[in-house]
Amino acid sequence: MAVAKHHLLAFTNPAPGREAEFNRWYDEQHLPDMLAVPGFVSGQRFALTDATGQGKPGWSYLAMYELETDDPDALMAEVRSRLGTDAIPVSDTLDSATAGGLVATALTARVMAK
After folding, report:
1. What is the domain-level CATH number for residue 86?
2. How far apart are CA 72 and CA 28, in angstroms?
3. What is the structure's pLDDT at 55?
4. Helix, strand, coil proportions of the chain in percent (round to 5)?
5. CA distance 54 to 105
6. What three-state secondary structure class fits 4?
7. In which domain, by residue range, is 30 found?
8. Contacts of 5 (CB under 8 A, 6+ apart)
9. What confidence tens digit (pLDDT) does each residue in 21-39 have?
10. Residue 112 lies in a domain
11. In Å, how far are 19, 60, 69, 93 from 23, measured between CA atoms?
């Protein structure tokens, strides 16, 4: 039986005036730390814009992680247990007051454009 597919969507902002440091920490430290958690398959970062015309989003960045687990709640509990430790240190370049996340569970197979 196949393991369920999920995505973790992590929305973040840098601390004011620390964007370059934040991006370096996220790319070089945080992304690899997250991918070291069993169940994490891949990760990619995105800059968010208001190109849809619906207004500026509340976050500057999105990290999208691909997860393979039959228990996303347990996987996220494992992540929370590691946050702020040597396994997943949190930088003061992150505006933690505005950070947010969601886990999305696939309902369909991936559909490709023709």
Report:
1. 3.30.70.100
2. 25
3. 87
4. 25, 30, 45
5. 25
6. coil
7. 5-105
8. 66, 67, 68, 105, 106
9. 999 999 999 999 999 999 9
10. no
11. 6, 11, 28, 9
